[in-house]
């Protein structure tokens, strides 16, 4: 997010900015964000994703909060529009998911929000579950987020801590909504070839972060939910890991999470093809499937 462009005077806007122990550029950022609605917190040690979410959600004094990643960007006027939606729906919802645009590289310009009517609708978990993984695309009711307690250790996943809460609100509370309007620019990360193991961990996060909460709260539509995540998210992470870490290490993660697969010949055949085909042919298979 370009914090300088975010520095506009909007009434009732409160922004908490948290940093891990690295102090690079902090004074410069503080100078840019000198208005009184920015509050800065600097950690004495590095915190994980879930640790930061838990800690700073408790400091929120507004009814709703929006957690933004450091490399995503809010479209111009989006905050104002979201405030209008929240005022109209605050009593009926525990939060909602925004739609978003993808961009591999953020350019130095302002991304404008197209003016059109915005209405919340029911979240279709079978069709749109993959959109829950993007933490910057979620607006939470503060009290619902804070009071949530993980049912067991297996349920917990640090990288997708927020996703476990949303699935609970969606399947149990049944008041999580969806805004089909692109108010956010989601930025792809740059591949770090020196830390290849990170991508193996991410593949496991895709399995555990999505399917553990879904299995815990409801088995309804599990096959269709799995299919959406498998073809939208997981298969891309499989191909990337084969490229970076090789087939043996990648399939060790897949086999470890085989219990999440529905019993269907389709997935067995796909995994077999991925195992025996060379990487160049796999790229054609991926394009065909998409």
Total DSSP E strands: 8
Task: Note the run of SSEs as H and E.
Answer: EHEHEEHEEHEHHEHHHH
- Helix fraction? 40-55%
Q: What is the level 1 CATH name of the largest domain? A: Alpha Beta
Q: Determine the structural class based on helices, strands and strand pairing.
A: alpha/beta
Within CATH, the superfamily of the largest domain carries the name Spore Coat Polysaccharide Biosynthesis Protein SpsA, Chain A
The DSSP helix count reads 10
Q: Give the rounded overall mean pLDDT.
A: 82
List the helices and strands and how they pair.
Layout: E1 15-19, H1 26-32, E2 38-42, H2 49-57, E3 64-66, E4 73-74, H3 78-89, E5 95-103, E6 121-122, H4 125-128, E7 138-141, H5 142-147, H6 161-173, E8 176-187, H7 197-217, H8 222-256, H9 265-276, H10 279-289
Parallel strand pairs: 1-2, 5-8
Antiparallel strand pairs: 3-7, 4-8, 5-7, 6-8
Structure, explained:
The protein folds into 2 domains: 15-187, Spore Coat Polysaccharide Biosynthesis Protein SpsA, Chain A (Alpha-Beta Complex), CATH 3.90.550.10; 197-289, no CATH class. The relative contact order is 0.11. The strands form 2 sheets. Strands 3, 4, 5, 6, 7 and 8 form a 6-stranded mixed beta sheet that branches. It has a two-stranded parallel sheet with strand order 1-2. With 290 residues, it is of the alpha/beta class. The chain is globular, with a radius of gyration of 20 Å. It has 10 helices and 8 strands. α1 (26-32) links the parallel β1 (15-19) and β2 (38-42). The model is unreliable at 1-9 (pLDDT under 50). The two termini are 29 Å apart.
